[in-house]
Amino acid sequence: MRWILLLSLVLVGALAVQALAEEAPPTADETRRAKVFATVGSETITVGELEDIINARSPYARKRFTDPEVLEAFADEQVRNELFYRGAEKLGYAKDPDVAKFVDQTVIQLFVRRDFEEAVTPDDVSKEDAAKYYQENSDEFRRPEMRRARHILVASEEEAKGILGQLESGKGMTFRALAKEQSLDTETKLRGGDLLYFTEDGHLVGKQGGAAINATLAKAAFELDQKGQRSKPLDLGDGKWSVVELTGIRPERIQTLEQASSGIRRKLWREEREDALNKLLMDLRAELKPEVYPERMDAIVLEPAGDPIEPRNR
User: Fold this and answer.
1) Angle at 166 between CA 161 and CA 168, to 5 degrees
2) How far is 17 from 11, CA to CA, in rounded Å?
3) Are 151 and 217 spatial neighbours (Cβ–Cβ below 8 Å)?
4) pLDDT tens, 39-78?
5) 159 and 85 in one domain?
6) pLDDT for residue 195
């Protein structure tokens, strides 16, 4: 963690130099904030310190402090915390490895938040940059039309015609019931032949690994005009035939620049922040020249992990 400490010293030194260069008589507000509220040993608690702790809270929480009793109890709590801190310091907790590790982590988090996350916000991304990204990545803001359908897979054209005739007569079982009873598609028959939502090229929405339905089924579904319509018997090859029924339509949706602007700005802000962090790391590596010995990782001894916990049945 030496580089963290060095970095902290550099930052503190830079701020001290700037303060000396800009030394001026304190303002009335600075004088007010510097008033000592309490002393604990050689340490002081100022009005400004109490004020900063309160003002860091939400507006709703701050409202409670208009009650003098709440404010007094809060101030007493800060004195109590300082007493505990001094007691812990006497017992050597300030040098405890766990405390040092916590401080290191806090320094890193504070540094990243103040210098990279708060210094520039998504609102600082210009309209021009957002518009440029929108134009260059237009596909991100277009959701293609999607269809949902179900089908019944059978072994011949005659069977497909028979099922279609039965459905169109309005007598007998529903499409869903027929699919469960007669479809040869083992993947979809238990859900009544449901093919889920898919795009015009057959790709299943929300499925990983390029999962897709038969292209002939997708083409037939996109040729139907409204929910409830059915296709003619479809030849899927290899002696398999199908009848498709359209069950859902999600029209194409295109986000306008105005609708997409907030998301684009957050994305560009995150990229800018990551670029700045990466540049800082490169600069620190060049300056501090860390040396790593990966072969020595073999010396690490891991405690036994124990048996994995079996998840409960649901």
Assistant:
1) 95
2) 10
3) yes
4) 888 888 888 888 888 888 888 888 888 888 888 888 888 8
5) no
6) 97
